[in-house]
Amino acid sequence: MKKLAATVLALIALLMAYTTAHASAESRLDAVIKGLLGTPYKYGGTTTKGFDCSGFTAYVFAKFGIELPHQSAAMAKKGVKVAKEDLRAGDLVFFNTSGKGISHVGIYVGDGKFAHASTSKGVVITPLSDKYYAKRYVTARRILSDSAYEKIAVAQPAGQTQTPAPAEVVEDAPNAEDAPDTEDVQAAEVAEEQS
Questions:
Q1: Which are the catalytic amino acids?
Q2: β-bridge partners, 169
């Protein structure tokens, strides 16, 4: 009986250690974003001294060898359109905060949340369901290929280090049907007017 109890206790300890290790696992994308949380907002900012929304997004992706333009509307022309219900970590999410089209960008981090540089709070993580952002959401774009997504945005076992390597990106949309979308912008503008 003592052997059985000792075996059960050992299995419980092993299971707890395994669970703790996996609970603390984070992706490379998570690690970069986590290190930038709280960085102040700075119009035109592209460094850890201060970011604007596109400066933050471009900075994060530059860490993985991916070059993005420093303008949210220009970023919205990269990669391919993805439906809101199909978002995965690393997708870019776009908003019409000015009433004049795409004017804000963030990085989807999973669990219905996105990281971005807020003018009032600096770099933060915000739910897409946040009242302000939910009614200003326009579109999302996927710029990471499936293999890049696996390397960058999927949690790695604790203690596993990976050498950063340039990530492959999804080729930009080859036709106007996939571009962001006058329809999306117009729908956001209508929602803005109705609020």
A1: 53, 104, 116
A2: 144
For 91, the domain range is 25-194
Q: Is position 51 within any domain?
A: yes
H runs (alpha helix) in the chain: 2-23, 28-36, 53-62, 72-75, 131-134, 146-152, 182-194
Classify residue 3: in a domain, yes or no: no
Please state, in angstroms and rounded to a whole number, the distance separating the CA atoms of residues 110 and 91.
9
- Distance of alpha carbon 169 from alpha carbon 141, whole angstroms: 11
Write the DSSP string, 79-97: SEE--GGG--TT-EEEE-S
Residue type, 4: L
Q: How many domains does the chain have?
A: 1
| Helix/strand/coil for 134 | helix
* CATH number (domain holding residue 151): 3.90.1720.10
| Tens digits of residue pLDDT in 35-86 | 999 999 999 999 999 999 999 999 999 999 999 999 999 999 999 999 999 9
